[in-house]
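Task: complex structure prediction.
Instruction: return structure tokens for all chains below.
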Amino acid sequence: MRATVTVSLKSGVLDPQGEAIRAALGSMGFGGVEAVRQGKVIELDLAAGTTEAQVTEMCEKLLANTVIESYRVEMDP
Amino acid sequence: MKAAVLVFPGSNCDRDMAVAFRAAGLDVTMVWHKDSALPDGVDIVGIPGGFSFGDYLRCGAIAARSPISRELARHVERGGYALGVCNGFQVLTETGLLPGALVQNASTRFICKTATLRVETSASAFTARYNAGAEIDIPIAHHEGNYRVDDDGLKALQDEDRVAFRYLATPNGALDDIAGVLSANRRVLGMMPHPERAADAATGLTDGAPLFAALADSLVTV
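Output:
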């Protein structure tokens, strides 16, 4: 089984990389990009029986810094 | 007066910090991150600058979960002193021993230059030899030095006089120009600028030396 964890900066936390990407897209002629937020995706291959609660604990304790980041867990059997 | 300097894979200011502690009269032991204990009788733990674990995941995140970091937390809970510089500051926020977080510089660039700081409080073992309001020149060298904390956290830092240093001109976008913060018991200091790089005339700057001298004063009288 697999879990996919998506970590993003919380809204309100400045994202300089996202802003640089937005500016680059604009300079390339892509109009209408109003905001870009860059996050990260962490894929976990898990032993059968690992629970979403365990993955959530991993997020709380290491994968995300909840001071500045939010996370989303998707479990694939 | 005993100091321990933690060494992680990728630390690169550990020996500089040890030199600064020794120059102030402290006995220094280097402690590898896989060690499960600090030397007996350690008064202060130094968490040095560098790129621990290659800054993987987030700066300081992996180091904060190293075996020795559990001992660091116990040391702080017992009322021990700790000084985290640059990556060490990032480790202290990742362990939760200091509030807030350090994110990428607003410019997205690595910044390496001398910054002028204002000492905001002399009420700590780290800053007792400075006058509040004094301006000091200390080098910075970081890519993730942009201090962030929520509104309540910022208010607590301000109300409790726990902002130790502010930049005169914020180089990295840090909230409220914050360059260094103290714990609630004022015994843990995290700062992005490098006082250990400004503690010996041979390196051209000496404004960091009073920080180490003040520590030595406090630890003698504890």
